[in-house]
Amino acid sequence: MNDPLGVMAIIAAQAAVGGAALTWLLGLWGQARRGFFLLMGVTVTLVAWGAYAAARAAFEPSEAVITVLPGDPSLLLLVTALLSTLSVGLLFARADRAGRRAGVASALVGVVALVPLAAARGTAVAAGVGEVVLGAAFLGATLYGLVLGHWYLFERALDNRHMIDAAKAYAVGCVAAAGSAALSATNPAPPLGGFSPFLAIPGFSVYLAFGLVAVCALIAGFTWKLATEGGRSIQAATGLMYLALIMAFSAEVSSKVRFFAGA
Fold first, then answer.
1. In a designed cystine with 51, which of 12, 100, 127, 154 is the match (CB 3.0 to 4.6 A)?
2. Model confidence pLDDT, tens digit, residues 19-39
């Protein structure tokens, strides 16, 4: 699989699945107002639909993703997007419990969808699963922390411990991203077709991924410290998450291009 669209499908799926899992399972339910779950739900849903559209265009039935492991990733991503859409619709209809169940279901199906996506490499499927799961933890924590930080502007009475939890999740995500970069180093440099020639330079994508992850780890430390202070410091932490999102996306592009496009 050397199509840039396939790599983007994997990255979008990671963000959607990781974001949904943290939204519904990190313990914020019942603490924040339902508006947060609507905001995060809509965000995750749009990313999930983008992942589905990219996967549908990128993966043909002849791809190794089908022959190595049964299951069409675009179909599973479609189910993920539909469940996420249903969750948002139920929340809008004020059927909160049902909306949460649909959200949890979308996260679970999304995790399953990551497996056939990981098989797109055609070889070393287990390593591929590790690559996408680690990436989902990283991008999901980044997206969740950014949106939650903004939510504190609307719900100022929300306990800052939830932002601390988000900062911890992001720190764990940075460790996962380092693992993702390390796994990507096991694959040869990708061919030039369709990608930036810089990413095809031997070793460059790996060094870039590790460098960006190092910056993300530095941001994680500051975010954690600011979150513990509460008040206006949470706004400062949110500002740092903008930079974190850019760095995280770039790090994952470097890792995934190296791991999947070079196969």
1. 12
2. 999 999 988 998 999 999 999
